[in-house]
């Protein structure tokens, strides 16, 4: 059923859908204050996803994170009101690949902003647990925001039995094993994005060297043992900027 034009809580008018995930649809909305917002709707059976995303996303106050502002209901669907992230999902924003060859400055800015977002999240004791291209909204200049916190939770959270949390193609080795996930598991996701930026594809194919100073950092971020990855998002950011300045 089309929702465009629906007024939510008397405050936010839905305009058009701007994104769809496996478990939600996101609408662009305009508030009574004239500002842009996003309204994310879940099917009724996923009420717990909406509640979890609000619990963790409402804590966030950082320019590189889409903050979750409020909970609501839209035509029987549990929903969230979020700050609006301008741009496109990462893989649509970078049509020429590998991105580090064709739009190096912009893609580096995207990675820096992703690391800034993770640094803030990790400082609060949280991990994102689903770092992937669809969860980075990128503007024309490469500016980016990290979105989608319904899988986020406390670092090294434990469950009654092993649980694989994340998207299959972007799971770290420890996530595949169902182990508790910490900040270095999010950094594995950054390694996958860096690999995509270097080679135009995810690991697994038969690819030659990119002859780029960032290749060593990429290998480090994708190390099977989390203890051999960089220690933090801030350290990764520093290494990225230092290596990116080297000639290649």
TrEMBL record:
It comes from the Bacteria. InterPro entries: Kinase-like_dom_sf, Prot_kinase_dom, Protein_kinase_ATP_BS, Ser/Thr_kinase_AS. Gene3D superfamilies: Transferase(Phosphotransferase) domain 1. GO terms for molecular function: protein serine/threonine kinase activity. This is Serine/threonine-protein kinase. It comes from Deinococcus sonorensis. ATP binds at residue 40. The keyword ATP-binding applies. The keyword Nucleotide-binding applies. Residues 12-248 form the Protein kinase domain. PROSITE patterns: PROTEIN_KINASE_ATP, PROTEIN_KINASE_DOM, PROTEIN_KINASE_ST. Keywords: ATP-binding, Kinase, Nucleotide-binding, Transferase. CDD domains: STKc_PknB_like (cd14014).
């Amino acid at each position: 059923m089309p929702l465009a034009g629906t007024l939510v809580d008397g405050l936010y008018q839905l305009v058009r859908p701007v994104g769809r995930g496996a478990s939600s649809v996101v609408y662009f909305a305009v508030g009574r204050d004239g500002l842009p917002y996003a309204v994310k709707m879940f099917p009724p059976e996923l009420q717990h996803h909406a509640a979890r995303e609000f619990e963790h996303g409402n804590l966030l106050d950082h320019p590189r994170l889409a903050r979750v502002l409020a909970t609501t209901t839209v035509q029987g669907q549990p929903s969230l009101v979020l700050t609006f992230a301008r741009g496109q999902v990462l893989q649509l924003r970078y049509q020429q690949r590998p991105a580090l060859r064709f739009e190096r400055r912009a893609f580096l800015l995207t990675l820096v902003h992703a690391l800034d977002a993770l640094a803030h999240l990790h400082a609060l004791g949280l991990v994102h647990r689903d770092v992937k291209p669809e969860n980075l909204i990128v503007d024309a200049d490469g500016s980016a925001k990290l979105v989608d916190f319904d899988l986020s939770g406390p670092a090294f959270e434990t469950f009654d039995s092993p649980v694989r949390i994340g998207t299959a193609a972007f799971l770290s080795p420890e996530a595949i094993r169902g182990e508790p996930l910490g900040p270095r598991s999010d950094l594995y996701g950054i390694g996958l994005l860096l690999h995509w930026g270097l080679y135009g594809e995810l690991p697994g194919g038969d690819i030659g060297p990119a002859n780029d100073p960032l290749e060593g950092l990429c290998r480090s971020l994708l190390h099977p043992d989390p203890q051999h990855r960089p220690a933090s998002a801030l350290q990764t950011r520093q290494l990225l900027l230092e290596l990116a300045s080297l000639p290649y």
